[in-house]
Amino acid sequence: MEDVVAHSSSDEHGGVCPGSRMAWNCRGAGGKAFSTLIRDIKKEFNASFCILLETHISGQRGEAVWKKMGLMVILLRKQEVNLVMVHIKVKSGSLPYWLLTVIYGNPQRINRNYLWDDIRLIHNEINLPWCLIRDFNAMLHDHERHGGSNSNRRGACPDFQDCVSDCGLFDLGYSRWPFTWKRGNLVERLDCGQSNLDWQIIFPTAHIKHLPSLKLDHSPLCLHLANDRQENKQRRFFRFQAAWLSHLNFTHMVNSN
């Protein structure tokens, strides 16, 4: 697991956090048009940093690519690891530090068991607001799959469900197309965002946007935080979680806001 500290500045309107963070499985990062694409996405969604998985580039070539993108970029190469977990400590304006863990789960279920143990280990060792995002390579629910044949049919992953329950995580939900991975006529939601209660209290309107896959098998995920003044207010919504009532600071948080 890699530890990175990212500081996010306030936006031009005085907001306490930038528009979004992005994570993407992208095998075409070395292409000539890729840097331009990332810059366009950054401009559209006010992204403060981007994490790219399965880039298949590194060294001087990788450094040259991310310098053209105009934002903080972390490149991860699939061939170097079977399981990737990037752990980032984020400071957004006047808000407290929070943790962002970006996941790349092994496609093989037997090799993915370590992922759930590592997530539980982080949960047991931290006391900060925490968000997890990206490619778990597993589904929480049976309905997060459509198409395909019976021979390649798979349903919800019990190990993933147990991990989410054990760590007290909440699905951040999503907007746009409901699936994030495609092969032929088979589509699945293998990428998602999860967070603990402390993070939900700080960012109660945060959500995930599924962006167009752009001919790749995985769609980019865009994590929109609360207080994003670039977002259309009519499209923002508040989601109450009953589990908030069990938090020790819930009453104080409500009274002070």
From TrEMBL:
**InterPro entries noted in UniProt:** Endo/exonu/phosph_ase_sf
What name does the UniProt record give this protein? Endonuclease/exonuclease/phosphatase domain-containing protein
Q: What organism is the protein native to? A: Arachis hypogaea (Peanut)
